[in-house]
Design a protein that fits this description.
413 residues; alpha/beta; 8-stranded parallel beta sheet; 6-stranded antiparallel beta sheet; 13 helices; 29% helix; globular
Length: 413
């Protein structure tokens, strides 16, 4: 599946952690359809532990309850927790919720973990279409260091590919458009690379166009061809949160990956921690980023052509955050341009450039802790017809402009 532009959507994790439910997913989908869809936002993604019947119940001790009760079918495949997702009762899975999201003109996605449920291995449940049981393909030495739910799959065992094929058969029946697979991107486990390939093959067989997103990062730069051949997007960082140090670091990561951004293959800067965050973590709050830092983040993500996934509770967005999310010229730049480059860097400024058939774009980032005058000698534009995208104002060579601390100007010529 070739995506001509980076996916744009919402993911439940930054606000709800492991606890999101069906009503909350629908509320965010309704909001996106009414207020954001026209600007390109279209994916609604249910993040981690939608299958856990105990998610969030011991959050003071565990993010993921060890050996919690889970929903699972006879073929070792996880199902939604029916108490949080009541429309999934009677074996319907996520199909009713996906149908609802599709009815709004949006697309539906889910998070999965690499591998097979540990409970399936313990119970020796079946692998669909085979006479093999889960314990045969499960590798108890291939485990996630931060989540206790799964064993990796041994790719050399008969039944391993059939297991992944059965997962994607189920997800296609549900109407899934997007899969975020976790504990796989940085290939910590010896089977990770093979499991990426098996997942890719299963998607190709399932008969449905499904975007494959790999997490967490940092992805391995030297494996850029492998990622592009087997996935649509891959994380270039571990979980990204709203601290300036993390945003400053992202300039280095984007520079390292700038040669490997292609249509259908997008290095992923991770979710956008905007608006209200943290309820599922026990700390509901507004983003720690200043508004200028938020503009810097949005500009870097868009000029680099990273996927855009909102982490906020959409129904609580304020007017200033909506200004960021509905800046049509910003998304037009992301969709129309190619081959963005960092062209200058010192201790005060970082400059990126890109162009489309009709426009040239220059982003000047002030990475210092004080406001700075625009370095006109570094911009190298004619200034005969220059618009600053965030303000919408026309600029000229004689106009004195300043960039706030950690802020940005984005020039369109």
């Amino acid at each position: 599946m070739i995506l001509n532009q980076p996916p744009m959507g919402w993911n439940s994790y930054d606000y709800y952690d492991t606890t999101v439910n069906e009503a909350q997913v629908k509320a965010n989908a309704d909001y996106m359809a009414e207020h954001l869809k026209e600007y390109g936002w279209e994916y609604i993604v249910v993040d981690i532990e939608w299958y856990s019947c105990e998610a969030g119940q011991q959050r003071d001790k565990f993010q993921y309850v060890p050996f919690a009760k889970i929903e699972m079918d006879e073929y070792s495949r996880l199902l939604p927790d029916t108490r949080r997702f009541p429309s999934s009762c009677d074996g319907k899975g996520f199909k009713p919720l996906a149908d609802y999201v599709h009815s709004l003109g949006l697309k539906f996605g889910i998070h999965i973990m690499r591998g097979i449920p540990r409970l399936a291995a313990y119970k020796r449940t079946k692998i669909k279409g085979t006479d093999i049981t889960a314990n045969v393909i499960a590798d108890p030495y291939s485990i996630c260091m931060w989540n206790p739910d799964m064993y990796g799959v041994n790719p050399n065992e008969k039944g391993a590919q059939e297991y992944y094929d059965s997962l994607l058969e189920l997800y296609a029946e549900w109407g899934v458009d997007f899969i975020k697979c976790d504990d796989i991107c940085r290939m910590d486990a010896k089977s990770s690379k093979a499991e990426i390939e098996m997942l890719h093959k299963a998607i190709e067989k399932c008969g449905r166009d499904i975007v494959l997103s790999l997490s967490p990062g940092p992805a391995i730069v030297e494996e850029h061809d492998f990622y592009r051949e087997n996935a649509n997007m891959w994380r270039i960082t571990d979980d990204f949160w709203d601290h300036w140090e993390s945003l400053r670091d992202m300039f280095d990561r984007c520079k390292n990956w700038q040669d490997y951004v292609t249509d259908g293959g997008y290095p992923d800067c991770d979710m956008l921690p905007l608006g209200m965050l943290g309820k599922g973590f026990g700390n509901e709050r507004s983003t720690y980023f200043t508004f200028d830092e938020q503009k810097t983040m949005m500009t870097l993500w868009c000029i680099f052509r990273s996927p855009l996934m909102l982490g906020a509770e959409l129904t609580k967005l304020d007017e200033k955050t909506m200004e960021l999310l509905t800046k049509e010229p910003l998304y037009r730049m992301m969709k129309e341009t190619r081959d963005a480059r960092e062209v200058y860097r010192d201790d005060t400024f970082i400059i990126w450039k890109t162009e489309s058939e009709n426009h040239k774009y220059t982003a000047v980032f002030n990475i210092s802790f004080e406001k700075q005058p625009v370095p006109m000698q570094l911009v190298d534009e004619s200034f005969e017809d220059v618009t600053e995208i965030w303000s919408g104002e026309s600029l000229c060579q004689d106009k004195v402009c300043e960039i706030p601390a950690h802020g940005v100007i984005l020039l369109q010529v």
